[in-house]
Here is the input.
Amino acid sequence: MRSILAAHPIVVSGDESHLFPTLYGAFAGRGRPSKRKAAALDTYDRWARGEIGVGAGPHRWVSRERLCELLDEFVLDTKDEQARVASGKAALGTILEEFATASGDGSRAVLVEKTPGHLYYSRTILEWWPTARIVEVIRDGRDVCASLQHKSMVRAWAPADRTDQIDQWVRAIRHGAATRRQAVAQGRWLSMHYETLSTDTCGEVRRLFTFAGLPAGDELIDAIVADTDFSALPTTGPQQHRRKGVVGDHRNHFSEADHRLFREVAGDVFEAAGYQF
Here is the structure.
């Protein structure tokens, strides 16, 4: 999804930033400023060293030197929660604005950022930036589990336990459903099913661009769909971050016990998300 949006000529984008999980607590949280700053820098450095994840992290959006300046400026020693939250908004907004300016060429007017964990900060994002919009991609939870099963072999962040995989999917689906019902999300939240995107890619990309306010004719949409098709992506396969992208792949990896467990843990959420057993 990020690749599709990033292919539009007026979009600037980058790798997953993980800005909110890494830095929100430093700016808007409670506790001594020195401890909050130290915790943020420690997590930042672990990202930079590749200890948390590879090919992503806040160090790809802001330099350590610049982050230290922002921490000094915006981490407040106050019990006033509203003041801390406002400071966090100013700091993270500065990072996003400076990244967009440095990455763009003057003709790109839309910034796209994709970090799965930002789902849990989506209401804050919508409240902070009135022009922000959220795109939520929903996928069959069984296929998500199959994907996580293989990710766990090459990525430390992916859970290997089937129950943990199901719980992670259920939590995300429930949070998305609850947030998009809120007033602040009305007209600013687009839910897309991975399976529909796979079968009607051009139609779904057109719907996506319309929602995002990105002008695009049929020729541009066709070109972007061709360039971002899974078969055209580099470094795909069993040991890669992008493995197969196949709809229904859980059938090749789920045991009967897995099917029973999924139905027991996620059955109601699965059906509420638009799927059927």
User: Anything to note?
Assistant: Residues 1-115 form one domain. The chain is about 55% helix and 5% strand.
